[in-house]
Every structure is written in C-alpha cells, then in structure tokens.
Amino acid sequence: MAYYWEETIKFFTEKGVSRGLAIAYIIVSLMLVVMAITAFVMWIVVMIKYFAGNRKETSNGKTGLQVAREMLDKAGLNHIQVKKANIFRAFIFGNCYSITKKTVFLRGAIANKKSLTSVGLALQKVGIAQLCESGNKTAITRNRLQILSLFGPILFLPIVLLGAVVDYLLFQVFGIFSIISIAISILILFAGFFITLLNIPVEKKANQMALETMKRTGILNEQEQKIVKDVFDAYIIAYIMDFIVSVLRIVQLVLEIVMNNQITKHNS
After folding, report:
1. What is the distance between the alpha carbons of residues 219 and 210, in angstroms, rounded to a whole number?
2. In whole angstroms, how far apart are CA 165 and each of 22, 38, 151?
3. Domains in the chain: how many in total?
4. What is the C-alpha separation between 197 and 45, in angstroms, rounded?
5. Is the model more confident about 229 or about 15?
6. DSSP 3-state of 94
7. Three-class SS of residue 65?
8. Quick one: DSSP state of residue 115?
9. pLDDT digits (tens, 9 = 90+) for 171-218
C-alpha cells in the first residue's frame, strides 16, 4: 500500500507538482470516489424505501391527490391545483410543486394510489407550496430554478465522468478545447452545488411540515408516520451526499488548476 502511495505521489512530483499539493490532491480524489459511491448507494436506498412505501396502503384509504387537495384547501390555498404529472414532467421534475403553474404534480405511479409514499409525498409537496406561497425566499428561488433539480439524484455521475475527462485534459492537452470543457464542467458543478444547497433546507422544512400535518390531523397513524419519515430522511441524506460530492469535486478542480500551473512552470 505504501509503495503505491509513494508511486502515485512520485507520478505528480516528477511533472513538477509540489509534494504537499500532490498529497492533498490524492486525498481529495480518494474522498471523492468514496463519497460518490456513498451517494449512489443512498439514492438506491431512497428508491427502495420509495417503492416499498408505495406498496403499503394507508389506513385512511385516501390517495395522494385527494390528500393534497384536502390539505391545500384547509391551508387556504384553494387556487393551487393538484394534478398527475405527465411523462415528461415526471421524468424531469418528479413529484413537485410548480410555482409558475401554481400546481402540485404527483407522478402517475403514486398519484392515484392509497399508499404511504403517495400520501407522504403529497403532504411534502403541499408543504413546499405553503412555503412558496408564504413568501419563503429560499423556497421560491429553489422552485424558480427547478430545472436544475435535474442534477439531483444523478448529480454525482456527471461530476465523476466529467472529472475524468477534465483530469485528462488538464494534465495532458491544455488547449482551447480543454478550456471550454473545463468551463462547462465548472458551470455544471456550481449549478449542482447551488441547487443542492437550496434543496436541503427547503426539503427538510417541507418534510417537517408534512410530519406535523400527519400528527395534527391523524391522517396517518404513528407506524405509518415512521415509515414516511424514513423515506424523508433517506432523501435528505442523499441530498447531503450530493452536496459533499459537489464540494469535493470543486476542491479537486481547483487543485488540478494549481497543479497544472506548477507543471507549466516546471516545463517552461
């Protein structure tokens, strides 16, 4: 192990990179790989809990669409619609609240089901609608930039794949094409970083509001609430993993740029 560690450091130092910088880069890169794998595993856990909850019927016998409509009306948000998302919207945004269309959208797979996932996520999206309609700036900004949520569950994948390409370009062929590629990578990285940064507090607050609604109204019993809470918690952990991955990749990219500068000076 020590041999491979020293050989890896030597690979960079022979190119002109300082030993300290080389060690920092290797450590960050290893952490990135570990966290990317962890993020991948967490999104699998989310999907498992999501589909498991969608197979369990609620004791109240109501669908997600019905519960969302009922709770919106009780909150005085009668102007907000509740609809089943079409295939395109479901693929891009998933279950969501559209601030422009003033509509809570639920995926077709859960919208008309009397399941824990359906009711739980319906209440969570109602919570987001309430946040937006009450003037919560973080929720409003996040929802106006909703297209960036596309980077959510698969955020770590483009980061890692683009990272491999950028790594090669930085250390092998640093020209106009690599500069353009790096710029695109940085934009994607910061877009993912920003939306995940907004997602965490908004989703967490909406989760809390949904759970409070369940307790206050008794629409789900204690055991059902626990299952839904597990789904909510898994989502938050996955978002946090995405955030860590994006931070590590940004740090790694900065280190690569500094290393490339040292290599250029060494070869000049």
Report:
1. 11
2. 19, 22, 19
3. 1
4. 21
5. 229
6. coil
7. helix
8. B
9. 555 455 555 666 666 776 677 677 778 888 999 999 999 999 999 999
Q: Tokens for 24, please give them.
A: 């920092």
HSE at residue 183, side-chain half, CA atoms within 13 A, is 6
* CA terminus-to-terminus distance, the chain: 34
Q: Give the whole-angstrom CA distance, residue 76 versus residue 6.
A: 65
Q: Is the dihedral of CA 181, 26, 192, 260 positive or negative?
A: negative
Strands (E), 28-117: 81-84, 96-98, 103-106
Residue at 13 is within a domain: no
Decide if 176 is inside a domain: yes
**Highest mean pLDDT (candidates 7-16, 19-28, 88-97, 165-174):** 19-28
Strands (E), 13-114: 81-84, 96-98, 103-106
Running DSSP on this structure, what letter comes out for residue 82? E
Boundaries of domain holding 62: 36-267
- The token duo for 19 is 């030993």
Give the Cα-Cα-Cα angle 106, 108, 111 (nearest 5 degrees): 50
Domain assignment present for residue 165? The answer is: yes
Q: Mind listing the pLDDT tens digit for each residue in 25-81?
A: 999 999 999 998 999 999 999 999 999 999 999 998 999 999 999 999 999 999 999
* CB burial of residue 177 (10 Å; 0-12, 13-18, 19+): exposed
Question: What predicted TM-score, i.e. pTM, was given to this entire model?
Answer: 0.79
In degrees, rounded to 5, the angle at the alpha carbon of residue 201 between the alpha carbons of residues 36 and 57 is 85
The answer to whether 56 and 248 are in contact (CB under 8 A) is no
Q: Tell me, what amino acid is at 187?
A: L
Q: Is 10 domain-assigned?
A: no
Tell how far CA 125 is from the center of its chain. Answer: 16
